[in-house]
TrEMBL record:
GO MF, one example: nucleic acid binding
Domain of life: Eukaryota
InterPro entries linked to this entry: RNaseH_sf
Record's protein name: Tc1-like transposase DDE domain-containing protein
Length: 91
């Protein structure tokens, strides 16, 4: 089953003939009706779930950072390891 919004590129003869030749059933749909599109409701539900899962994951990871690590990262006198100068090896 294929759904499109009946815009001009979707209903051209070549497109229609291709779908018919490939036996692709097309859901009858009024032109220019994105508010009636079922897939938009699916995308909305997916977006809400992903946002909630992301928020939960961020909160869990935040809680797992040891306070000492947070303190060391915000203490300007002790820069993070990535900013410390590396000692050159002598041969």
């Amino acid at each position: 089953m294929f759904q499109h919004n009946n815009t001009r590129p979707h209903v051209t003869r070549i497109c229609t003939e291709f779908l018919e030749a490939e036996n692709v059933p097309v859901l009858p749909w009024p032109a220019y009706s994105p508010d009636m599109s079922h897939i938009e409701h699916v995308w909305d539900a997916l977006g809400r779930r992903v946002r909630q899962q992301l928020r939960t994951a961020i909160e869990e990871e935040w809680d797992n950072i040891p306070q000492a690590k947070i303190n060391s990262l915000i203490n300007f006198s002790d820069p993070p390891p990535t900013f410390k100068k590396k000692k050159k090896k002598k041969f």
